[in-house]
Specification:
mainly alpha; 8 helices
Length: 135
């Protein structure tokens, strides 16, 4: 049996309607965004934290999200940050591969331009040997 989610967020955390109102507000002070982002980080609610750090253009908060992505191999979340650096994607791909997150690894290596690694991961996913590269 799956655990049931609490109907109410923990004390001091925005409910979904208040969160949506704040994120859709034309103007929101960066310090308010940072406070909410940090609260969501404490809870491990990465998507919510990212939304507030992006709204407040909080470079330090965004760096925390990126560090989490690189450590956890989370290609989806790193993609949501708008990351373009091929080296960051290569690092994430290596981490995801080491953790067995093959689809995240494949996506990261694609964005890093690492075609040999993409082929390797694809072979792991499909169970078929990778074709040799003509170099």
């Amino acid at each position: 049996m799956l655990p049931t989610a609490s109907k109410n967020p923990p004390r001091g955390v925005l409910d979904c309607l208040k969160k949506r109102r704040l994120l859709n507000a034309r103007e929101l002070r960066p310090e308010v965004c940072r406070q909410h982002g940090e609260k969501f980080l404490e809870l491990g609610w990465w998507e919510d934290a990212l939304a507030f750090f992006q709204k407040g253009q909080d470079a330090a908060g965004l760096a925390k999200i990126k560090a989490h992505c690189l450590a956890s191999g989370d290609a989806y979340l790193l993609g949501r940050t708008g990351e373009k650096d091929p080296e960051a994607w290569r690092q994430l791909g290596e981490q995801a591969l080491a953790q067995g997150k093959l689809r995240f690894a494949r996506k990261a290596f694609e964005l890093a331009g690492e075609t040999a690694k993409v082929a390797l991961v694809e072979s792991l996913i499909t169970g078929k040997a990778a074709a040799p590269l003509n170099t």
